């Protein structure tokens, strides 16, 4: 460990949107740089501040992947000291209690395993379609292809869906580090729309919910069952109860995925309207990637900028508080600068080496 890596990464968990993302990004940065992490006021912006079971799972996964040590890793704790060890490639299995999101735990350990000295397989059990978390379909179709463009291998397999609150979903992530330093790429345009389609998942619920959602979405988007643009995807009853309406837009240069989860207080028609509003907001912009992918893509790209010493840019439809918070956290943890500027009908994010 160099002298620079011994300088602790100190984060205030109440910064920006004040949620669990600062913790997850902080843990990832600590593991890839070897810098100890000290984070205070964890999730101060939430009704129930401090570490919840899902966040503890992220800490425990980080400890397992790098043989690290964590002080304050207990329910409700608002302070954490994390000392990373050497990241070890290998096979891992993490089970997240109370249907916490598998994907958020994966995002905590993925950056470190992308830079490890060998291949890894990570099995995760928990929620795959959760409120306030990216669904599996988003990571598989939108996020993972961009990661592969950096030079690392990432293949995601869905073994079983798990909806909140029952959970029980299972995914497997196969991670192959790049042979050479990660190579940053610019993502400035989405290109021509090649295909657009939607699917409805309703395990453990009445099948007519899916048909109503798809029919309403089709009316709003001009999509039809006959053209294969509206699909009722088969799901096992024991994967629910749950409901997800998912739209996939395949462009020449990238794929975007949008998802709305059903709730007891929402009709099928309301779920479809929410999704169509989200799609149309994306289509009105010239930004290459949507608001959620803009947030998730920032850290892998920053790692590539750090390793290569070369700047990279991407455009997005909007910059959310999550994205702004992530930019601030990354700039504290890596020797990079993140600049966000408006461009015509979009926002541009540029990441460049510091200094």
Concise structural overview:
With 355 residues, the chain is α+β, with helices and mostly antiparallel strands.
Please give the alpha-carbon distance between the first and last residues.
22 Å
One letter per element, helices H and strands E, the order comes to EHEHEEEHEHEEEHEEEHHHEHEE
Overall SS class = alpha+beta
* Low confidence ranges: none
Shape: globular
Question: How would you describe this protein?
Answer:
It is a single chain. Helix content is 33%, strand content 26%. It has 355 residues and is of the alpha+beta class. It has a 4-stranded mixed beta sheet. Strands 5-6-8-7 form a 4-stranded mixed beta sheet, covered by helices on one side. The radius of gyration is 20 Å and the shape is globular. The relative contact order is 0.12.
Throw out a few tags for this protein.
four-stranded mixed β-sheet; 355 residues; alpha+beta; 9 helices; single chain
Fold topology:
Elements: E1 9-12, H1 21-33, E2 37-40, H2 53-66, E3 69-71, E4 80-83, E5 91-95, H3 102-114, E6 120-126, H4 136-149, E7 153-160, E8 169-176, E9 193-201, H5 207-221, E10 230-232, E11 244-251, E12 255-261, H6 268-284, H7 291-296, H8 298-308, E13 312-316, H9 321-333, E14 336-343, E15 346-353
Parallel strand pairs: 1-2, 5-6, 9-10
Antiparallel strand pairs: 2-4, 3-4, 6-8, 7-8, 9-11, 11-12, 13-15, 14-15
Helix pairs in contact: 1-2, 1-3, 1-9, 2-3, 5-6
